[in-house]
Amino acid sequence: MNKLAVAGTILMLFSTQASRAAVTPSVNAALFAELCEVLNWAEVGVEVTTTQSSDLEDYTSLQQLNMTLAAAAWREKFDKTKTENQQRTPAADHKDDKFAAALWSDWQEAAAATKEATQREAVLEQAQLKGALPATLTKSKAVVQTETYAAYLLKKEIEAISPKPADNLQQVIQNKIKQAVFGKTEKGNAASFNPAGATAPSGNNRGTVCATTGTNKLGTLVEVLMCLCTKAGNSGGTAINAPCAAKSGGDGEAYPSAGQDGVLTGYDNIFKLCKKPKKDKISSADIHRKLSVLRGYFVHQSDAGYFGHFINTACDGDEAKGACVKYHDATDAAQDKVDEIAWVSNLLQAEKTLREAEKYNEQAGPLLQGLHQCKATAFSYGEAVSSLPVEVQRTQPADKPQAASLDTSGCDKHTSKNATECKTLGCDHDAKNNKCKNKEEKTKYSRNRNRSYGRSRSCNWVCKTRN
Questions:
Q1: pLDDT, tens digit, 9 for 90 and up, residues 180-200
Q2: Of the candidates 149, 219, 208, which has an alpha carbon nearest to the alpha carbon of residue 180?
Q3: pTM above 0.85, yes or no
């Protein structure tokens, strides 16, 4: 064969391949695999990877223990069921005391939760202080005051973090994903599936159904799957077989021709191709990755953005055109319009909500752990003190008098005694009247308070138990 003939043959082959639409079954298989993950999130469910919450239960428990150890008069002062207490205000009772104002409602809640003796007994039992000796209660009381104040400072930091995650975060995320797939939080049945802006399918209107004139139409992935994965629905040409994945017969799911009621039925048959048995654990990064991948399947042109397998002109399922969705607004000059498509927007909202919750956990996590440690310290101190061995009094030589008991009441009865004799009796000496006197009691409160976390003098109102 001469060179001219070879060149002609090559040119003929090239021309033939270029003009032929190379369409095979499963042309949208890769895209379908990505969408399947989202479908499973909606159908089977998700578990969000974040576990922290804004729960301040440890702080509440500390306030209840602090109130239980307080004097009855102090506790009753915050009983809102009593008429005389209903008009009490921080400004009236504790003028210019910012801590009283800040803690007023906390004290009222703690007082309400410890009003009954049985409630207080339950708190003491939890703190292993039920039936404890007075000395143990006194020591525990000081520790509880300190830990309650530390917890109050942590609580303020936690409350300053914004935004707070929803209490039912997993359900919120689940609902957003369902809205992306079904257009609502419950799938419903075939007859109930009627998304806003949808055009009911008929025998030959696929090109119309799968094209939008705004972002409301084709805003659910159920509708999108009808345009990407079914066969036929066009008035001429050759339909693409099984665009997403071939069924046993090789043709795939047929384009629904019985109106809107047939859309959900067709979707259910397609979903069977990728259904998973269990939930996925997801994070905001998982949703972000998914959206990034799906955006990559958009082909932006001057007239529209095409999602899925697009060849030319329209998305009517014909081999010469494509199995796709035509979003008129998402042109090459306005690619950001993709984020306004309803199913994309719902996934974006799920990502944002989950990311905010994860950020909250990063900030609040260490603080919540500190709060838990405050409670653990306060609620375990009673047991620690009670388990300490009682110091046995040392035996003194017979030639030395026994040291007096720490209870030195009655020292003033020893008259005509000098300082040495009074000291031997365990008493102080009253030089003026030349007799013994009771030892002066010294409080350790101020030293204890100054040692505890370097607390300020304002700790009086925050953690001090009124007597």
A1: 999 999 999 988 898 888 888
A2: 219
A3: no
